[in-house]
Amino acid sequence: MWLPCGCTSKYVASSFARRILASHLHVSGRSRCNVAAFMPEAAGFEGVSGRAALRELSVSNSESFWAAVARHRLSWSIPFHTVQDCDLSRGKIKWFEGGKLNVSVNCLDRHVHTCPERVALIWERDERGSEMKYTYRELLEMTCRVGNLLRRHGVKRGDCVTIYMPTCPLAVASMLACARIGAAHNVVFAGFSADALAERIRDAQSSTVITVNQGVRGGKVIELKKTVDTAVESCPTVKQVFVAMRTDNPVTMTARDIAMEEVREQKMLKEDVVCEPAVMNSEDVLFLLYTSGSTGKPKGLVHTQAGYLLYAALTHRYVFSYHDGDVFGCVADIGWITGHSYVVYGPLANGATTVLFESTPIYPDPGRYWDMVERLKINQFYGAPTAIRLLLKYGDQWVNKYDRSTLKTLGSVGEPINTEAWEWYHRVVGDGRCPVVDTWWQTETGGICIAPRPSDPDAEIVPGMAMRPFFGIKPVLIDTEVSGELLTSNNTSGALCMAQPWPGMARTIHNNHQRFIETYFQPYPGYFFTGDGAYRSEEGYYQITGRLDDVINVSGHRIGTAEIEDVVCPAVAESAVIGYTHSIKGQGVYAFVVLKKGIDVKEADLSRQLNGMVSEKIAKYASPDFIQFAQRLPKTRSGKIMRRVLRKVVESDLEGLGDLSTLDDPAAVQEIIQGHEKLLSKNRP
Question: How much is the average pLDDT of 488-505?
């Protein structure tokens, strides 16, 4: 039986929390009422007089805080007995041990019991004006049918199902069906190439893939089934591929393919729409999601059941000030962590109405987002700075054409938003009345960690800054130059790390826990290293300054430089890829290429060939914007390519080149500078 939330933690008792807090804080009953109205769980914390005090409690007494929130927010079949068992020095992270639950029950069944006809999903299809709505009852039935289908074909608890689909209701039902029967899912962005898909299928050891015949995006048909066919040729573990129909166009079916139309053809009998949920442990795997790393091999980050769901739900509710009846519009693809946390799991756990956006911001015209806001009456809009910068260039008229009076909160995600885009977003899109929450987080964090909200309603928001840590998050800055010294003062910059664990964080890298430790916990022992740099202002607000490793953020998509460099071309002897500031995408890709001796080929032809290979092996967004051919690259005497020097050249910061005496041949730098100037002059209008 699925029970309301409950816990018998050996670490936490509400009386303990009250004793601790009452000893140093005292507030009126009215203050307690105010903070309890904001967050009901806070009613059990005497002495918490406001949101700032609640945040302080969430850090100083994190176990008390998270235990209360978990009891209240999630439905458990068996209560947890241990709040957390974490050791950041060893990369050990466990939350809510002993607890058992099912994520799909938390996202669907409990809402069907109270409000079955509430709209769960609004599918904003590529074809404008053809949106489709699905209630919680309908989504539960679809999820159960998919779950039964998977079970009938041998998918069992502990298996990993790869999903390669556009953003659509069946993709959401497939994710939830995996969660329902105890299988993990591995959603792969439907813009990835066959090679990139195959690599992720092999690493996840999937025997089952779910896809569609074709995708539709921006008015173009995308051959997803053909991509899967090519990918699985090199994936011996794949035994079956479920194929749904997004368009009416038939595709070639093989012996391993199963038409998902079987889901629709099942008889509408009671047992067909009932799928018994598996009882899962809090720390069982919920999903894998691959993200680019600096080594070139994507990392399969592992998120587990209870902690991830709780954190996604809590951040969705409080960062965006979501309330029952609101329509939440996150325009991310489900293939990214933003789609997982703020299109699917966070909103559905909260019983929200969430939008699935299948199209692009400029199809069929640059008013697409704002037409959608008017038609669907969206209250919270969450998008990428790349799209905001793009739409800004089309002018205000495409925004002002549509009624946006329903908007209450605007959000940005994926990369830092520049001040000009922030101010346009706030002034034009939000009419100067909607707070803009510039959110910082990662695939690794599971949910938003730093954002301007939640805070007091009249608290300032500084353009272009993520600003304030979320409940339970304790960011610190560490000096990157002086052997990991903790920076305690304000008005300073350093490596952004987290000083204590939180429930939503990733647990490991699939099949490679040592890499997990080396990447996130060894650089600064005792801390979680985010890979980003940050600035802390005089007021204590945080501003993200960019990656500290060799990862480029293109339009919010992280791609490792080594991943691009690893694309093999017979004519290339060596290459170096760096990111540079791009006015639309945030960062662009700039490649330096050295050809093998004796190669006689036109640079323009080879550039086209290299771009085509990167598109085929990784994805179109990873293709270099510029390819500069060089006789040699600047290297240290030990043979290491000096990417720092290349980056300074591309940024035209020649004064910042620094000491070049350690280079094997400093003259190589001058050749690179001259080649860069020549390439720029060739590309000027």
Answer: 96
Q: Shortest CA distance to 134 belongs to which of 189, 185, 173, 176?
A: 173
- Start-end of CATH 3.40.50.12780 domains in the chain: 81-346
Q: What is the pLDDT of residues 176-214, one digit of tens each?
A: 999 999 999 999 999 999 999 999 999 999 999 999 999
Quote the tokens at residue 481.
Answer: 């130059």
Give, in order, the Cα–Cα distances in Å from 200 to each of 49, 182, 454, 507. Answer: 48, 20, 36, 18
pLDDT one-digit tens code per residue, 353-392: 999 999 999 999 999 999 999 999 999 999 998 899 889 9
Res 267: pLDDT:
37
How far is it, in rounded angstroms, from Cα 590 to Cα 608? 14
Q: Are 464 and 490 in contact (CB under 8 A)?
A: no
Closest by Cα among 301, 335, 116, 321 to 215: 335
Give the C-alpha separation, 108 to 314, whole Å.
Answer: 17
Give tens-digit pLDDT for 126-160. 999 999 999 999 999 999 999 999 999 999 999 99
DSSP lists the bridge partners of residue 588 as: 580
Give the E-state strand segments of 499-597 in sequence order: 508-509, 528-536, 542-547, 551-554, 557-560, 572-582, 586-595
In angstroms, rounded to a whole number, what is the distance separating the alpha carbons of residues 616 and 622?
10
Query: Residues spanned by CATH 3.30.300.30 within the chain?
Result: 555-683
Q: In the CATH scheme, what is the code of domain 81-346? A: 3.40.50.12780
* Residue 228, amino acid: V
Q: For residue 529, how many other CB atoms are within 10 A of its CB?
A: 22
Would you tell me the crossing angle of helices 224-232 and 194-204 to the nearest 10 degrees? 50
Quick one: DSSP state of residue 637? T
Q: What is the pTM of this model?
A: 0.84
Nearest to 75 by CA among 14, 1, 130: 1
Q: How far apart are CA 304 and CA 95, in angstroms?
A: 9
Candidates 568, 589, 567, 566; CA nearest to 579 is 589
Q: Is the dihedral of CA 265, 269, 270, 276 positive or negative?
A: negative
Question: Which residue reads 């007089």 in tokens?
Answer: 49
H or E segment and range at residue 286: strand 285-291
Q: How far apart are CA 652 and CA 457, in angstroms?
A: 42
**Does the domain at residues 555-683 carry the CATH identifier 3.40.50.1360?**
no
- For strands 208-212 and 184-187, give the pairing: unpaired
DSSP H helical ranges for 46-135: 51-60, 62-73, 103-104, 110-114
**More confident site: 33 or 111:** 111
* Residue 273 DSSP class: G
What letter would DSSP give residue 590? E
Residue 540's pLDDT is 97
